[in-house]
TrEMBL record:
GO terms for molecular function: 5'-3' DNA exonuclease activity; 5'-3' RNA exonuclease activity. It comes from the Archaea. InterPro entries: PHP_domain, Pol/histidinol_Pase-like. Pfam families: PHP_C. PANTHER family: EXONUCLEASE, POLYMERASE_HISTIDINOL PHOSPHATASE N-TERMINAL DOMAIN-CONTAINING PROTEIN. This is Polymerase/histidinol phosphatase N-terminal domain-containing protein. NCBIfam families: CehA_McbA_metalo (NF038032). It comes from Natronoarchaeum philippinense.
Length: 293
């Protein structure tokens, strides 16, 4: 028999935020003040400004907003882009991306492979590189910016591919906003006990969050062999396991999945995750729950 490891807890408040945004400190069109005001006006709880190889110090802007500002950098030079959330310094953009991930992890940051399916080959991050690197905390399963660039905004297939190889990493949705029209395309909602940068970072690192392009998850948890999810606005909820296989589908805003015997017995299956589908292609993705013997 296996234990279903849920990263979620019964306590905490859901806080919505974007962990990928650019300003005039790199190639964004708006200064940090304007980007902060935009997200705050939309009711976001937290925001990470993440300019290319440039750390914008949130302390300069905390008096401006009640939003939690999480320091971040998008490590960009020298190779595929890597998000460093919880940055206290600019990590050297070493061409060896394993070295960058290791440094981020050593510094207690949250390391994410960004927009893996950007560009004409749909392989900004090659499969080989994604598979080789150990210790990522996450992968962008949705990057809003790529909607208006070559490639695919969604990358849940790469996520399932990596999870099925035994990599344990969380799925992140983000705007990657560079201008006004890029805002509120994809976000993360963390389950947190406090409204502080440290608490948000802790929730991200521990997978205590879900990712969304529009669907709101209200509760998600495990009770024995049952996985329970309720949403405000999903039309269809799917249970997915290794290699992206859809195990069960419920056409409702809530679902109770009884894990089938072949999953609970262990062996071939290593994780389950839940996809909540709503109107107009909106979705929410829970984090994987690992099936540990
Ligand atoms: Zn990028
Ligand atoms: Zn970016």
């Amino acid at each position: 028999m296996v234990t279903i490891r849920s990263p979620y807890e019964d306590s905490g408040t859901w806080l919505r935020g974007n962990v990928h945004a650019h300003t005039t400190e790199s190639d964004g069109t708006r200064p940090p003040e304007d980007v902060i005001d935009d997200y705050a006006a939309r009711g976001y709880d937290f925001l990470a400004l993440s300019d290319h190889d440039t750390l914008v110090d949130p302390d300069e802007y905390r008096s401006q907003t009640g939003m939690v500002l999480v320091p971040a950098v998008e490590v960009s030079a020298g190779g595929p882009h890597l998000q460093h959330v919880g940055a206290s310094t600019e990590v050297d953009p070493d061409e060896d991306r394993q070295a960058v991930v290791d440094t981020i992890d050593e510094n207690g940051g949250f390391a994410v492979a960004n927009h893996p399916k950007w560009l004409h080959e749909f392989e900004h991050w090659s499969r080989e590189e994604l598979s080789r690197i150990e210790g990522f905390d996450g992968i962008e399963i949705y990057n809003g910016l790529i909607q208006r660039h070559a490639g695919a905004a969604r990358a849940t297939d790469r996520w399932d591919w990596l999870l099925s190889q035994g990599h344990r990493l969380w799925g992140v949705a983000a705007d990657d906003s560079h201008r006004g029209g890029d805002v509120e395309e994809g976000w993360t909602v963390v389950q947190s006990d406090e409204r502080t940068p440290a608490a948000v970072l802790d929730a991200l690192r521990n997978g205590r969050f879900y990712s969304s392009t529009g669907v709101t998850v209200e509760t998600v948890g495990v009770d024995g062999n049952e996985l329970l999810v309720s949403t405000a606005d999903a039309d269809r909820i799917r249970l997915i396991s290794d290699h992206g296989v859809v195990q069960q589908t419920v056409d409702s805003s809530t679902a109770t999945f009884h894990l089938p015997e072949q999953l609970v017995r262990g062996g071939d299956h290593t994780y389950v995750r839940v996809e909540c589908l709503g109107r107009g292609g909106d979705a929410a993705w829970t984090q994987p729950m690992f099936l540990d013997s």
